[in-house]
Amino acid sequence: MLCTNLFKGESVEPNQKTKVLYDGECKLCKVEISGLKWLTRKKADVEFVDIASPDYKPSLFSGVTYEQAMKEMHVVGPQGQIYTQGDAIRQMYRASGLGWLASLTELPWLKDACDRLYIRFAHYRLQKAFSRCDSESNRCSIKLHNLRNKMRNSS
């Protein structure tokens, strides 16, 4: 789903890059992003941004917060437009030179299924991330720990 800039009152300079926001603490995410980085190694118009980094600043990415990006995939387009869920995945693939794959997932008989599958995966991935906080191995970042507690307290 395409969203408009969250900070409508602020002027946004076009960033001229597609910025893919991903969870650098997620093993599966890191594997996929590693492959996409390889595909885009000669392209200057794609940036992969680790939202788990302590240096992540939402104001630099059209206001997309850590919490929003953890709940569902976000890609910020060159003009600051925000793509979420399946549309974010398709935009990420297009920016990475895999437009054919994005187009395939937009076929009328496949789009709804792909989008529903993504929503289920996003929920599963977030629960899996929270399970890192419950283990004895202490693999849970402060950001993730705080998000898990916030979501537990709001339900």
From TrEMBL:
Which terms does the record give in the GO molecular function aspect?
Answer: protein-disulfide reductase activity
Which Pfam families does the entry link to?
Answer: DCC1-like (PF04134)
> What is this protein called in UniProt?
Thiol-disulfide oxidoreductase dcc
